[in-house]
Amino acid sequence: DEDEYDDEDMYLPISDLPQSILDYIEANYPTLSIHEAEIEEGRYEVELTNELELYFDLSGNLLYSEYDD
Questions:
Q1: 33 vs 1, 8, 38, 50, 53, CA distance in Å?
Q2: Can you tell me whether residue 41 is helix, strand or coil?
């Protein structure tokens, strides 16, 4: 279905995330897995299996986190 992806969102394979993001998640959330990852509005958005969303700049630095509504 072509409508599955919004023009502004680009879903990524987890393996395409910068290593700094993977390292941050492993260090701070060792019991959680990545549910999905995307580039949205010029930043990485990573949703964990507990619905916590982590936002990183394109250099892989954490900007903020919030729970998915």
A1: 26, 24, 15, 8, 12
A2: coil
Q: How far apart are CA 44 and CA 39, in angstroms?
A: 5
Q: How many alpha carbons fall within 13 Å on the CB side of residue 16?
A: 11
Summarize pLDDT for 31-67 with one digit per residue, the tens: 999 999 999 999 999 999 999 999 999 999 999 999 9
Q: What is the pTM of this model?
A: 0.83
